[in-house]
């Protein structure tokens, strides 16, 4: 025979599973807290994820002021539908006026709608006057804080 080593058939059999012993994570040196204090980051943000692209500066957004006159015209003709508030960005108020206007007009044939429409018209007339004369506050600015011109 030859001088070559004979293959060991047990070498190719699956080995039984042997769990690894549990290892504690390394503790910090004595006197040092295991975690950074609340609100502090252990590393500067640029070192936390160096493989990810770093954030770019935010672009400057120029917002054109809304027209006080156009707001008044929209409130005059379409105020019961809240169009003037949609124009200025006050969507919550606009949706409320839109829903009240639609429900008021749909129920006006049974007289109930007039009890909804009359307060809505008063609300719109008060808003119209405030949009025309207000120098500060909600009625002098759009929803994003830009003064009306």
TrEMBL record:
Q: What is its main location?
A: membrane
Superkingdom, natural source? Bacteria
Mind telling me which residue stretches traverse the membrane in this protein?
69-90, 102-133
* Transmembrane helix keyword on record: yes
Topologically, how does it sit relative to the membrane?
Answer: Multi-pass membrane protein
Cell location: Membrane
What is the recorded name of this protein?
Answer: NINE protein
**Origin organism of this chain?**
Georgenia thermotolerans
